[in-house]
Structures are given as structure tokens and as C-alpha cells.
Design a protein that fits this description.
Blueprint lengths: L8 H54 L51 E2 L2 E2 L19 H4 L34 H6 L15 E6 L5 E2 L15 E6 L4 H10 L32 H7 L8 E6 L5 H14 L4 E5 L4 H11 L6 E5 L3 H11 L3 E5 L17 H18 L2 E7 L18 E6 L6 E9 L7 E7 L2 E4 L4 H4 L10 E8 L2 E13 L7 E4 L3 H14 L7 E7 L11 H13 L7 E3 L2 E2 L5 E2 L4 H11 L3 E5 L10 E5 L2 H8 L25
Parallel strand pairs: 6-10, 6-11, 7-8, 7-9, 9-10, 17-18, 19-22, 22-23
Antiparallel strand pairs: 1-2, 3-4, 3-5, 11-12, 12-13, 13-14, 15-16, 16-18, 20-21
């Protein structure tokens, strides 16, 4: 039927009638809904108007009358005209005001003011005369109140205005948009001495503080790291002084004792508690100092808990009381580890707690000589508002309370801190300024070597390094670390050289290996493991340009033995010897150590503490040393070869008269067009 609308006019008319009927029904429905909505809005508007009228009426009945403008307190320096009820006026008129309760003005007007072609103040105004600009300034502190009368602290005051005793109609002192719409609202009562609780937002990543919560930290660039924390109100003498003086002044108090000349200050005898672990005592300067706070950090799985459990057992075996508080593991897990390590002792007390008040209660109950807390990021104070355990505020607060307790009781305290995702220790360096000693335990996860370094130590030297080997029975001290970093390659192996690297103040013998292989790539590869990759590319370029070693068509691979990371310039000469040895297929003598930095001009530069490195090489049994010509120190029984440049070092360190490659054929012209001789 609908397909024949364009052919049969009857069908077309019937369809139009149906559409018109539907449109009329829809229109009537919309009108009905609109009428209902308008009626509801009118009802709500009428109720609000009645409520506002009732509130305004009650406020006007309760509030005292407001004085007229001309009857307010005059300025002290303003003149008073005879017969003028409003002293200090500068612009008055003779015409009576439009309000019946207002008195007339008798002083003449100084000049007329024209507005839109007519006199606005001809000899008078149809409204009360206003004072000049100098009279309208705030009277609260400078002689005026800027048109607010005497309502300053006590609200509106009723004052007779006219000569007949009439008063101005009372008006409630309304403030704020809501009060102007709904009427006067009585402010809540204020308790004297009650401070308003203030909050601020602190970034849990970097510690940046903002007055309110924001989603993006402008300091470190992280998102969603801000947490709110309460700001303690100022109280006591300092708060009273600030409130009285209007500033942040602090009241001076009498000191506990006078200042003492520095020569008369007694020296405190620190009886260190040796842990029984030689490498740990080396880093700590002999052991733990009573009352000191030590922070031990490192990557997950480095062995922090294992090392501290071994040290706690050794201290307990020596007659000291050690309290080991674990906030991460259960006591059963720690017991199993202690059995595996052989660290069971009667003087070692074990507890599990995650709240700071519980930890302090354990300390007060047992009075230990040493406290080990594993870890500081999992302990929190429930009385401190804001973020939970691990937040910047919680970590700083818990560490400060534990530090104060350790100093007061003379208890050596060791805190375990984890490395965060940005590489910092236990947060944005909020703990390193509170504690006395900061130690870091580092090592590759797939290697047995662990290095313990002290980056901050108030009771000893900074830079000592302790070497440990991870075994099935825990961490074992390694007195001679050279065996871990020097491989067991047979004599005559090419591409191997030995150097002495400094870890803190301790020289370690390290072996550098290199492999040079032909390549079919247009850009040969330079791969470094445990070494600086950019430094490897630079030394390859120096070898090719200054020493004539052709490496443009070869891949170069270099690595360090034992998983140690070598980044200091003293490794340059040994790395060049290893690369040239692999390229020429000539071995470096096994009794030779190489020390020196290689410059871009091919010169050799002296490195720091060369004498300490040579002394360690002599102790380890090496007989020859290759050093820069600038070294003039002691030889320590070694045969020292002093050379000026890289070419001379290659001639002295490699067997054969000339370290240049024997193949003198030209390179393919399609690649570089440069001969092998440069």
C-alpha cells in the first residue's frame, strides 16, 4: 500500500492524515509536561520568596538600628562647621534630603558637577552628600571605615540620627552572596585558643609540597603521587608570640648551660660493637657505635636481610642483646632462614610489628643493645594522618622518632631501606640526612659478587668497600677479591688484559676481555658488557687513527669478568691492549697490569692513587706494570714501564717489535678508500 503513495492520491491523503494526527498528539503531550514543570517551578519560587522574607524580617527585628551616614564617627583631623551635625564634611548643600529622618546640610557646595549635560550637584543633590575621597578611606586603621559605620566588631549599632530623635531603619549586617540571598546567618561560635586544622599535599616521590592537592607534580613530573597531610598548628610560646606580634617570632628561652670553648669539650669514647663479619666491620670502621643509626639499602634480592641476620647472630653470640623487628616477613620465615644460615642464638630476640608504637613498646620492654628494623618503609604511625606506610611523611616521621630514641637510650639502630623505582634509597633522600651512616649493598643478580659501600659515615672513613660472595650458607666475606674478577684463561690467550680499578678506596684487580671478529655489515658493531659503550667506541677510533690498528671492517666486543662494572678512565689502557691483542692475535703477558687514561691525541694520562694500585698489584703477585710517563712514585718491587703514548704502550705490552697488523693490503675502495696505514 505504501509503495503506491506516489501513484494513488487516496493513499497519499490517508498517510498525511496519520502523520498530522501523530504530530498533534506529540504537541499536546509536550504542552502538558511544560505546564506541569512551570507550575512546579512557580511553587518552588514562591516557597523560597516566603522563606527569604521571613528570615529578613527576623533579622531586621533582632538587629539594632544602623546609624545614618552623617552621624558616624568623624575624622580626628577634619574641621567642624558651626551648626553642621555631620562634622568633617567637605561637600554639603542647603536642601533637605529626601529621607524624612535626615537633617539638612547648611554648607555651600564648592563647585557643580555636570553629568550628561546637566548639573548633577547644582547647589545640592537629591541624595545625602558624600564626603571627599580623603574622608571615605577606611577608618578602622586610618581614620575611616569606608562606609561601613561602626559595625566593625559588634555589628550594627543604633544611634539617633535626626534632630527629632528619629533613627534610620535597622538593617542586618549581611555578608556573602548566600547571606544576601537568604538573609543574615549567625556565625558559629568560636572557642578561644582553638586553631583551625590545615592540610597540605606532599608528593610521595620527591617530597614536593603544594598548598592543595594536584594531580601532576611540577617538580618530578609524576602523576597521582600527592597525598594530603595535616599541618600542625602553631602553639606554645612561639604561637603566642606570633599571634601577638603579627609575625612568626620565636620567644627566646634560657639555655640549659652556657657555651663551652671547643678545646674544653670532652671526647666521647665510642666503644664499637664488632659484628664478627670482617668485611662489614671494615666498612663500618670497626663495628656499630652505640647510639648511632645506620641505613642499609640495596636492590631487592641483594642480601640485606641475610647480612643483617648473620650480623645480629654474631652480636648476640658476643653477649649483646639484639632485637630483630621484621615488618615484612613472619617470624616463621625468619626462623627457617636463621636455621639455614646457622644464626640461632639465645640473645637474638625476634618480633614482627608494623606499627611504630608497638616497636617503641618492644624497645622499652627489652632494652636491647642493637635494634634491627626490616624495613623502614613498611612501618607506620597510626596517629599520623595522611599517607600510609611508605609515604614520605610516614618514613620521615618514623625515622626521626627512632633516631631520637636511639640517641636517648644509647642503642645502635640499623634500618633497612629499599631502592625505589627512580633509584633513590628509601624515598627522595629523606632518610640520608637523619641517619649517621648510609651503606649500599650492590651486585648483579646473576653473579655471586656483592659489594658493600659506605656513602656516608660520621664515625669513620667514607669509601671503604666490603666484598661478599653469595653462597648457600649466606654471605661469605672475600678477603682477596682479585680471584673473583680475574679469569682463569690459559697462558697465550689473546684479547685479555688486567687492570686495577678502585671501588671506593679499595683497589680491585679486574680482567678485561675483547674479541675482534670480521663483519659483513656496513656499520660494524661495538658491544660492551660491564664497560661504557660510548667509551669503547671512542677508544676504537683512537686505536685506528693514532696506533694504526685497522678496525673499520671488524666487530668489537668487550666485557669485564665477574659482573663488576668498570666505568673509571683507568681501564682505558687495559681495554686498548685487549682489543689490539685480539686484532693482532698476540697475547698480553699474564704478569702485566696496565694503568692509564687514553686521550684523543693518543697520549697517556695519570690516574688517581696509582701508588695504591701498584701496591695491591705487588701483593697479588704481578711482576710488571705499564703506567704513564708522568708517574714518579714508588715501584713496590715491580718492573714499571713508563710510556708517553698509546703506540709506545702497545709496543711495550704486546710481544713483537711492531703492533701494527701484518696485513698491509688496501681496503676495498667501495667502503672507505683509505689504506691500512691510515
Amino acid at each position: 500500500m505504501f509503495a503506491n503513495f506516489d501513484q494513488n492520491p487516496i493513499y497519499a491523503g490517508f498517510g498525511g492524515f496519520i502523520v498530522l494526527l501523530l504530530w498533534l498528539q506529540l504537541s499536546m503531550l509536550v504542552m502538558l509536561v511544560g505546564a506541569e514543570v512551570n507550575a512546579e517551578l512557580e511553587r518552588i519560587r514562591d516557597e523560597r520568596a516566603r522563606d527569604r522574607t521571613a528570615v529578613l524580617g527576623e533579622a531586621a527585628a533582632d538587629a539594632p538600628a544602623r546609624p545614618p551616614r552623617h552621624a558616624r564617627r568623624p575624622r580626628a583631623d577634619a574641621g567642624t562647621a558651626a551648626g553642621d551635625p555631620a562634622p568633617g564634611r567637605r561637600r554639603t548643600c542647603t536642601r533637605r534630603w529626601s529621607r524624612p529622618w535626615a537633617p539638612p546640610c547648611t554648607s555651600p557646595s564648592p563647585r557643580p558637577r555636570a553629568s550628561r549635560g546637566r548639573a548633577r550637584h547644582g547647589p545640592c543633590r537629591p541624595r545625602p552628600c558624600r564626603p571627599a575621597r580623603g574622608d571615605r578611606r577606611g577608618r578602622a586603621g586610618r581614620g575611616g571605615d569606608r562606609g561601613r559605620g561602626d559595625r566593625g566588631a559588634g555589628g550594627a549599632a543604633a544611634t539617633p540620627a535626626g534632630p527629632a530623635g528619629t533613627t534610620r531603619p535597622a538593617r542586618a549586617p549581611l555578608t556573602g552572596r548566600l547571606q544576601r540571598l537568604a538573609g543574615a546567618v549567625t556565625p558559629p561560635p568560636t572557642v578561644p585558643g582553638m586553631a583551625k586544622t590545615r592540610t597540605r599535599a606532599r608528593c610521595t616521590t620527591c617530597g614536593h609540597v603544594e598548598p592543595r592537592w594536584v594531580g601532576h607534580c611540577p617538580h618530578c613530573g609524576e602523576w597521582g603521587t600527592f597525598v594530603e597531610e595535616a599541618v600542625p598548628a602553631a602553639g606554645g610560646r612561639a604561637g603566642a608570640a606570633a599571634g601577638a606580634g603579627g609575625g612568626s617570632r620565636v620567644v627566646a628561652v634560657a639555655p640549659a648551660g652556657p657555651a663551652t670553648p671547643i678545646r674544653d669539650v670532652p671526647l666521647d669514647a665510642h666503644h664499637r660493637a664488632a659484628t664478627g663479619i670482617a668485611e662489614l666491620d671494615r666498612v663500618l670502621g670497626g663495628g656499630l657505635v652505640p647510639g648511632s643509626v645506620t641505613l642499609l639499602g640495596g636492590e631487592p634480592g641483594a642480601g640485606k636481610s641475610t647480612l643483617l641476620l648473620q650480623a645480629a647472630s654474631a652480636l648476640a653470640a658476643g653477649g649483646r642483646t639484639v632485637l630483630y623487628v621484621s615488618a615484612e616477613e613472619s617470624p616463621g620465615q625468619i626462623r627457617l632462614r636463621a636455621e639455614r644460615l646457622g644464626a640461632l642464638s639465645d640473645g637474638l630476640l625476634l618480633a614482627a610489628a608494623t606499627e611504630l608504637p608497638v616497636v617503641l613498646g618492644l624497645v622499652d620492654a627489652h632494652g636491647p643493645d642493637v635494634l634491627v628494623l626490616d624495613s623502614i618503609q613498611t612501618v607506620h604511625d597510626p596517629d599520623l594522618g595522611g599517607a600510609g606506610a611508605g609515604g614520605v611523611a610516614q618514613v620521615r616521621h618514623c625515622a626521626s622518632v627512632l633516631t631520637e630514641t636511639a640517641k636517648r637510650q644509647g642503642m645502635a639502630t640499623v634500618l633497612v631501606g629499599h631502592v625505589t623505582k627512580d633509584g633513590s634509597l628509601a624515598g627522595p633522600r629523606v632518610l640520608e640526612h637523619l641517619v649517621d651512616t648510609v651503606c649500599e649493598l650492590a651486585g648483579e643478580r646473576h653473579h655471586a659478587l656483592r659489594l658493600l659501600t659506605a656513602v656516608k659515615h660520621r664515625f669513620g672513613a667514607v669509601g671503604e668497600v666490603g666484598c661478599f660472595e653469595m653462597t648457600g650458607g649466606g654471605l661469605r666475606s672475600v678477603d682477596d677479591a682479585g680471584c673473583l674478577f680475574v679469569g682463569e684463561a690459559p697462558d697465550g690467550t689473546t684479547g685479555v688484559a688486567v687492570t686495577l680499578a678502585l671501588e671506593g678506596r679499595r683497589p680491585l684487580a679486574c680482567e678485561v676481555q675483547a674479541l675482534v671478529a670480521p663483519t659483513q655489515l656496513a656499520n660494524p658493531r661495538r658491544v660492551a658488557s660491564g664497560l661504557d659503550g660510548a667509551r669503547l667506541g671512542l677508544l676504537v677510533a683512537v686505536l685506528e687513527r693514532r696506533a694504526g690498528i685497522r678496525l673499520g671492517d671488524r666487530d668489537v666486543y668487550a666485557s669485564s669478568v665477574g659482573g663488576v662494572r668498570l666505568a673509571e678512565p683507568a681501564v682505558d689502557l687495559a681495554l686498548c691492549l685487549a682489543v689490539a691483542s685480539s686484532r693482532q692475535d698476540v697475547a698480553v703477558p699474564r704478569d702485566l697490569v696496565a694503568l692509564g687514561e687514553v686521550g684523543l691525541a693518543g697520549e697517556l694520562r695519570l690516574v688517581a692513587q696509582t701508588d695504591r694500585r701498584l701496591a695491591e698489584a705487588a701483593r697479588l703477585g704481578f711482576s710488571r706494570a705499564l703506567v704513564p710517563h708522568a708517574y714518579t712514585g714508588e715501584a713496590f718491587g715491580l718492573r714499571v714501564d713508563r710510556v708517553r703514548d698509546l703506540l709506545g704502550a702497545l709496543r711495550s705490552g704486546l710481544s713483537g717489535p711492531d703492533p701494527r697488523p701484518r696485513d698491509t693490503s688496501r681496503r676495498p675502495a667501495a667502503r672507505t678508500g683509505v689504506t691500512a696505514d691510515g
